[in-house]
Design a protein that fits this description.
Blueprint lengths: L12 H10 L15 E3 L2 E13 L5 E9 L4 E8 L6 E3 L6 E6 L5 E5 L2 E7 L1 E10 L6 E12 L3 E12 L7 H7 L4 E2 L7 E9 L2 E9 L8 E5 L5 E3 L3 E5 L2 E10 L13 E5 L4 E5 L2 E2 L1
Parallel strand pairs: 12-20, 13-21
Antiparallel strand pairs: 1-2, 2-3, 3-9, 4-8, 4-10, 5-10, 6-9, 7-8, 10-11, 13-14, 14-18, 15-19, 16-18, 17-18, 19-20
Length: 285
């Protein structure tokens, strides 16, 4: 099963037994109450629950993880930015689930102490596309979550969450609204060409990406990724040069070795105040 982190602690074991009871034939599909909310100074910082969603025509299920923060607090996107804490989700204790794919909605850009981060204030609805091992049987989703939440300071938070997924379910406007905020293919916005240049720099390299693409909205910003490389990559400086959107970031090898980039695997997301588009790959230039 695909998970976003191999890490797991034994605290989720009692959830497995509880979910086996939840999956008995007489149990109806229903949201699970928030589980183990983290507390700071006597006030809840965040709580989590599973929204059961609906079964899609292809046999997968569209559910969601809901994270509610104390008003004024925020948590982070899958790419947290220079000032954020990357979320880690472990779903390995789930039952009858082959894969879980998170579908991230467009984040907000936060500036804190001169550093940028990307995340969600007050609430995050994270749609989950779930593939069952056996589509004829119910599923139990059991998760251990490690996230960061911030206001004036940042706090690491450990949460557990679980839910029983059975039957066809039903449409959920909250999940549907979050899906409307997901990344769209940049080709659909007229992306014509993407080049990238890598130049040696102190303690790594400088990566410059140039995308020939129409403006997708105010506040455009490129966020670059090098999946599977293990490299650290900074927030990008982004600007317009005519028809080109240009971004520049620093790349470092966390093992202090040289930096070598596979251009075909480089991914980038263009964020604006209105939309989010995604593309992968570039050519030398």
């Amino acid at each position: 099963m695909n998970t976003s982190s191999p890490h797991f602690t034994g605290r989720a074991r009692p959830l497995a037994a509880a979910l086996m009871l939840a999956l008995s034939p007489v149990t109806l599909l229903a949201p699970v109450a928030p589980v183990q909310a983290q507390t700071l100074f006597g006030s809840p910082v965040t709580e989590a629950e599973i929204l059961p969603g609906w079964r899609a025509a292809d046999g997968t299920r569209m559910a969601a993880l809901r994270l509610r923060m104390t008003p004024g607090w925020h948590t982070y996107w899958r790419i947290p930015g220079d000032a954020g804490i990357a979320p880690r989700f472990d779903w390995s204790r789930s039952q009858n689930i082959a894969a879980i794919e998170p579908i991230w909605p467009r984040p907000t850009v936060f500036t804190q102490n001169g550093l940028q981060s990307f995340g969600y204030e007050d609430e995050l609805i994270l749609p989950l596309r779930i593939t069952p091992r056996n589509p004829d049987r119910p599923m139990a989703i059991i998760g251990t979550l490690e996230i960061g939440v911030c206001r004036d300071t940042c706090v690491p938070v450990d949460l557990q969450v679980s839910g029983a997924l059975r039957g066809a379910g039903g449409a959920d406007p909250v999940i549907a609204a979050s899906l409307e905020q997901r990344a769209e293919a940049a080709d659909g916005f007229g992306l014509r060409r993407t080049t990238c240049r890598v130049e040696p720099a102190s303690r790594g390299a400088e990566l410059t990406l140039r995308a020939t693409v129409p403006q997708i909205g105010p506040g455009e910003q490129i966020v670059m990724e090098l999946p599977g490389s293990g490299y650290w990559i900074s927030n990008s400086q982004t600007w317009r040069e005519g028809a080109d959107l240009v971004a520049q970031a620093r790349v470092r090898n966390t093992g202090d070795g040289p930096v070598g980039i596979d251009r075909s695997s480089l991914s980038f997301t263009i964020l604006s105040d209105r939309r989010m588009v995604f593309s992968r790959g570039c050519v030398g230039g």
